Amino acid sequence: MIDLGVVAGEASGDLLGAHFIRALKQTHPALRVAGIAGPRMVEAGVAAIYPSEKLAVNGYVEVLRHLPELLWIRSRVTRHFLRQQPRAFVGIDAPDFNFTLEMRLKQAGIPTVHFVSPSIWAWRPERIHRIKQAVSHMLVVFPFEEQIYRDVGIPVSYVGHPLADVIPLDPDVRGARAALGLSAGPVVALLPGSRLSEVTRHARLMLDAALRIRTRHANAQFVLPAASEAGARLIRQALQGLNLPLQVMAGQSHTALAACDVALVASGTATLEAALFKKPMVVTYRVPALTAHLMRKKALLPWIGLPNILARDFVVPERVQEAATPENLADDALAWLDDTARRDAAVARFRTMHLSLRQDASTRIAEAVAPYLA
Fold first, then answer.
1. How large is the C-alpha radius of gyration of the chain?
2. Are residues 323 and 345 in the same domain?
3. Do 35 and 156 belong to one domain?
4. 146 and 181 part of one domain
5. In DSSP terms, which residues pair with 7 in a beta bridge?
6. Is 197 exposed, middle or buried (0-12, 13-18, 19+ CB in 10 A)?
7. How many C-beta atoms lie closer than 10 Å to residue 232's C-beta?
8. What pairing do the DSSP bridges indicate for beta strands 137-140 and 281-285?
9. What are phi and psi of 141, to 5 degrees?
10. DSSP-assigned beta bridge partners for residue 262
11. CATH of residue 318
12. Among the listed residues 29, 24, 26, 33, the one whose alpha carbon sits nearest the alpha carbon of residue 2
């Protein structure tokens, strides 16, 4: 039997979930947790029924391709939890997968807590009605999200963002560069995304941008933290034949961000991480044309990068779809490197953002979930 069921959808959910599970086990040391989990959650004590990477699919077209397997996994996991009858269930990200699962569990009398609100403030706002049917308690990571749920009568807690607690307010740039063996000169971090589909779409784009940056800064160095070994292989294939001083690392995204002067980042949680490390960045993203068309029709905000959404301003440039070219990414990165005053202004805004999100999130999450385990 288990006390708590969990489902985390991808690398970022696995990271967030690991922090929360560790905090909960400080007050519930014998807690038995099982579900869909990645390596960090497994390390934190979660028994994995399936690995999180099974759910790491994004976009309409991509989901349709993997739909049969996703439906089969969700059916198996639902039956497992209905048999086990955990005291509570926590869904971490993966809203399209989790909300249907949570609805079934909630109907069966199992309290459901969802950690990290989907971006209903950015697109598909109609999901709020489905969320109300599925979720007993929503935990939100951004302060402006709380009122959205209160307005429709969904119990909600603002817990802050765990990454804001983990990432230091003043990153050790010198130590990170020493750890990576970097010499003097500009350092550019390339973060093409954690999903293999993202790496496929963004790796060569960023590598070509890096080559252009080198034409202006011959001593520039590049670091690329790969989220998986499969991703690292794709990157090395894209790198073949290119004369580029690039370190491809297994993980170490925080070390790469601490060390860099500017980052090229695929839209997602990594953009928030870059902001918390106080790094100027260029946000980019590419999806298949049909997916882009459908998403644009439902978009509510002019921004896609989390730093811009939180600031309600274009603090950092965004290059999406047709605008995501090596020329544009390189020009934007060079503009950051050449403008000290602009960099300093962005760093000041990122520091304010960091302080607002630093709420000891793991403790707050554990406090919100604990009553359901009593």
1. 21
2. yes
3. yes
4. no
5. 36, 91
6. middle
7. 18
8. unpaired
9. -105, -10
10. 188
11. 3.40.50.2000
12. 33
Residues 323-349 have pLDDT tens digits of 999 999 999 999 999 999 999 999 999
> Cα–Cα distance between 251 and 177 in angstroms, integer?
15
336-345's contacts with Cβ under 8 Å and 24+ in sequence apart are 336/261, 336/262, 336/280, 336/281, 336/282, 337/186, 337/217, 337/261, 337/262, 342/280, 343/280
Q: What is the pLDDT of residues 120-145, one digit of tens each?
A: 887 788 889 999 999 999 999 999 99
Residues 345 and 366 in one domain: no
Please indicate, yes or no, if residue 165 is contained in any of the structural domains. no
Residues 109 and 228 in one domain: no
Token look-up 């491809």 returns: 248
Q: At CA 152, angle to CA 146 and CA 153, rounded to 5?
A: 85
Same domain for 198 and 54 = no
State the pLDDT at residue 59: 47
Shared domain for 363 and 239, answered yes or no, is: no
Q: How confident is residue 46, by pLDDT bands cut at 50, 70 and 90? A: very high
**Is the model's pLDDT at 290 over the cut of 80?**
no
Please give the average per-residue pLDDT across 33-43, as a whole number: 95
Residue 113 is part of which domain span? 4-160+359-373
Domain shared by 235 and 311, yes or no: yes
- For residue 1, count CB atoms less than 10 angstroms from its CB and return exposed for 0-12, middle for 13-18, buried for 19 or more: exposed
Q: pLDDT above 70 covers what percent of the chain?
A: 95
Q: Is residue 167 part of a domain?
A: no
CA distance 305 to 317: 9
Number of domains into which the chain is organized:
2
How big, in percent rounded to 5, are the helix, strand and coil portions of the chain?
Answer: 55, 15, 30
Cβ burial of 79 (10 Å; 0-12, 13-18, 19+) is: exposed
C-alpha to C-alpha distance for 257 and 176, rounded to whole angstroms: 9
Q: Which of 14-23, 60-69, 134-143 has the lowest mean pLDDT?
A: 60-69
Angle at 274 between CA 210 and CA 144, to 5 degrees: 140
Q: Helix, strand, or coil here: 48?
A: strand
**What is the pLDDT averaged over residues 225-240?**
93
